Structure to design on (731 residues):
């Protein structure tokens, strides 16, 4: 893939099924469900948070006298160093010998590996198969898996010319995967509806 | 619509094959009675749709249905969580290796493997199964919802006795006419038709339409119309070939015994008839009818017949004596005449004219058939003794209506028709029985019928009687019960490789007459030219 892609974050925690990355810029977190890549490993953003640097120490309210929210940050430039944005991505596949496989890679991502946001062509290539949906269905995140799946499919559909037929095929795949739990399927489908 | 319907998801030889429909196939396009082929791993199966169902993967979908007003949700769920299913009864295996192809369609003995593709049968498949129109095969109609011609091998058909059933007004007569024409054209057999309502010979009625032409109008050189009622035939402007008279001396006590319930005779009265025949000789009936008081007393004294029985018998015989075609002694031999025509290969239609009461029909049909049959039996035995095929009489098909009157359990043993049905083609005589109450026909006779064709029946007992002993009875029942009330029929048995619901070919338009008469390559003579005028 193109090396000109902008790196957005760096892996700070990695396991076989997921990795957590810290964003280089505060609040510049990829959207929920976005496809990201670190090395050869692909992940889908399943959770994101912004916290203080020191665990156990909560930020304090600072804006009582500020006119706008932006003014708070302007008045306390150190905030950008004291706060950090992180996200966790579910590993959904990897590239080997140029080919994308939608199953877990043999090794987890490396710490300090750069994380890139996948450009539309790569999203298009990745979303030719729906095998990754099964990984998402069976993952446990702090965000409900239905939200992650719906959000991810919505974004993938945007890079497609015929986004409706993409969503219908994805919906059919989900209906087959979740044949015995149609309530979950309906829950996701409600979030996929095309306006 | 694509031709691929779906895949096999479940099957049992006994219960049939479950097919899950593919998403683009609408369940509403699936009709009971249509043909499908299943592409098995080693052979192809040919079957019929016998049930259509809706299925869901999760029961909760039926309990709280999704919002299908949203086309997106409807599209996703259609074919995945909601799907159509059809139940297919496999009937035949076709194809496979080279040997199997050469053997032709075979009865099904196994089932297709999981997930084999199921397709709508193509015209070629159906032609492969039912054959093309040729020297022996006759085009009788089209399988329901299909353009393909359903062809019946009539050479096979006439080898057994056959039955046509259906409620009144479902098109039995039309169907019979088509089959008679088929037999006339495509087989060596000749027909003898006991035409109770004068429907076959010259002209037939057509509910809500103009009268249709009978056999003689279409095939003047191959068909002879005999009549029992010259006057009626003349009134209807029918060119008859012969007027049949029955001599009282030709009637035997056996003929009387099958009329027992029709003439309301007691058992003792029938017994008396046998005794009288013994005492009075061949002309017994004439004598009984013309007995004076004194002679009667003498007769009662001489035999041990009870007076009441004799009176009962006399009353019954009086009914026979009053029939217009019954004469004390017939001048010429009607049976010999009929046989002569039949031997020349001419089909004989015997019109009953105004004698439409069942007693007349039973009497005449039984009496003539018995003597024709015994003549056939004699000739056949001679031919077998001489070991010569050439001496064998032409195969004969006797058509009788109201068959349950001849073949009900009470009289089936006594009438000649019971014997013909049972002994089948040993003597080259078979029956074509037409009836609206098949449940009234003796079970044993029913079981011997080779091919059965049935139009709509809605009485449970009639349906059971017709379908008894057929494999896949329950599936066929659902097909039979859903036939249209007119001009649709189900055929199964000896002459067809598998049961098939069909719509009989058209009969009654000028074009249809032309089709019938022009498609007779085996017809021995060309119709005379003046028949052209009739098509106008």
């Amino acid at each position: 893939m193109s090396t000109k892609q902008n790196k957005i974050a760096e892996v700070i925690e990695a396991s076989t099924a997921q990795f957590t990355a810290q964003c280089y810029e505060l609040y510049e977190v990829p959207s929920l469900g976005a496809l990201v890549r670190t090395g050869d490993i692909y992940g889908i953003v399943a959770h994101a948070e912004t916290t203080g640097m020191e665990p156990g120490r909560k930020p304090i309210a600072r804006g009582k006298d500020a006119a706008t929210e932006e003014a708070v940050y302007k008045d306390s430039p150190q905030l950008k160093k004291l706060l950090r944005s992180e996200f966790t991505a579910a590993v959904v596949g990897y590239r080997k010998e140029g080919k994308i496989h939608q199953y877990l890679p043999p090794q987890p991502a490396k710490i300090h590996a750069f994380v890139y946001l996948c450009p539309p062509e790569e999203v298009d290539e990745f979303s030719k198969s729906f095998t990754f949906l099964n990984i998402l269905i069976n993952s446990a995140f702090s965000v409900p898996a239905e939200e992650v799946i719906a959000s991810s499919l919505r974004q993938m559909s945007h890079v497609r010319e015929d986004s409706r037929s993409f969503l219908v095929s994805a919906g059919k795949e989900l209906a087959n995967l979740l044949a015995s739990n149609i309530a979950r399927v309906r829950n996701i489908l409600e979030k996929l509806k095309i306006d | 619509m694509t031709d691929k319907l779906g895949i096999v998801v479940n099957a049992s030889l006994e219960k049939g094959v479950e097919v899950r429909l593919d998403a683009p196939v609408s369940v509403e396009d699936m009709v009971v009675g249509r043909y499908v082929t299943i592409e098995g791993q080693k052979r192809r199966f040919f079957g019929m749709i016998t049930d259509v169902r809706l299925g869901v993967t999760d029961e909760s979908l039926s309990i709280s249905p999704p919002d299908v007003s949203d086309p997106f949700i409807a599209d996703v769920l259609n074919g995945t969580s909601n799907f159509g299913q059809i139940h297919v009864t496999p009937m035949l295996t076709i194809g496979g290796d080279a040997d199997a192809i050469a053997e032709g369609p075979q009865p099904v003995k196994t089932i297709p493997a999981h997930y084999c593709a199921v397709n709508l049968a193509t015209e070629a498949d159906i032609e492969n199964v039912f054959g093309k129109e040729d020297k022996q095969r006759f085009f009788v109609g089209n399988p329901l919802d299909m353009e393909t011609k359903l062809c019946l091998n009539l050479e096979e058909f006439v080898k057994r006795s056959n039955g046509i059933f259906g409620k009144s007004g479902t098109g039995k007569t039309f169907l019979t006419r088509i089959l008679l024409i088929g037999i006339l054209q495509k087989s060596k057999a000749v027909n003898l038709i006991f035409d109770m309502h004068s429907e076959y010979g010259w002209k037939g009625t057509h509910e809500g339409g103009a009268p249709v032409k009978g056999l003689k109008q279409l095939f003047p050189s191959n068909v002879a119309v005999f009549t029992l009622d010259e006057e009626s035939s003349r009134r209807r402007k029918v060119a008859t070939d012969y007027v049949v008279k029955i001599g009282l001396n030709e009637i035997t006590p056996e003929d009387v015994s099958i009329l027992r319930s029709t003439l309301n005779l007691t058992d003792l009265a029938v017994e008396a008839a046998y005794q009288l025949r013994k005492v009075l000789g061949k002309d017994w009936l004439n004598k009984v009818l013309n007995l004076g008081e004194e002679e009667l007393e003498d007769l009662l004294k001489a035999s041990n017949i009870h007076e009441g029985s004799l009176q009962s018998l006399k009353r019954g015989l009086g009914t026979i004596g009053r029939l217009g075609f019954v004469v004390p002694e017939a001048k010429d031999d009607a049976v010999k005449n009929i046989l002569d025509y039949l031997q020349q290969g001419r089909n004989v239609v015997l019109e009953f004219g105004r004698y439409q009461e069942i007693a007349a029909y039973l009497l005449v049909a039984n009496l003539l058939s018995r003597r024709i049959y015994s003549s056939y039996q004699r000739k056949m035995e001679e031919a077998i003794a001489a070991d010569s095929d050439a001496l064998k009489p032409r195969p004969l098909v006797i058509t009788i209506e109201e068959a349950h009157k001849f073949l009900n359990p009470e009289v089936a043993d006594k009438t000649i028709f019971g014997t013909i049905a049972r002994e089948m083609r040993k003597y080259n005589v078979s029956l074509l029985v037409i009836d609206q109450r098949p449940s009234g026909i003796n079970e044993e006779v029913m079981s011997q019928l080779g091919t059965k064709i049935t139009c709509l029946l809605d009485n449970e007992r009639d349906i059971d009687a017709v379908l008894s002993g057929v494999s896949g009875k329950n599936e066929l029942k659902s097909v039979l019960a859903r036939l249209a009330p007119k001009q649709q029929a189900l055929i199964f048995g000896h002459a067809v490789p598998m049961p098939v619901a069909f719509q009989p070919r058209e009969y009654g338009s000028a074009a249809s007459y032309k089709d019938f008469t022009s498609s007779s390559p085996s017809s021995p003579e060309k119709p005379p030219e003046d028949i052209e005028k009739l098509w106008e």
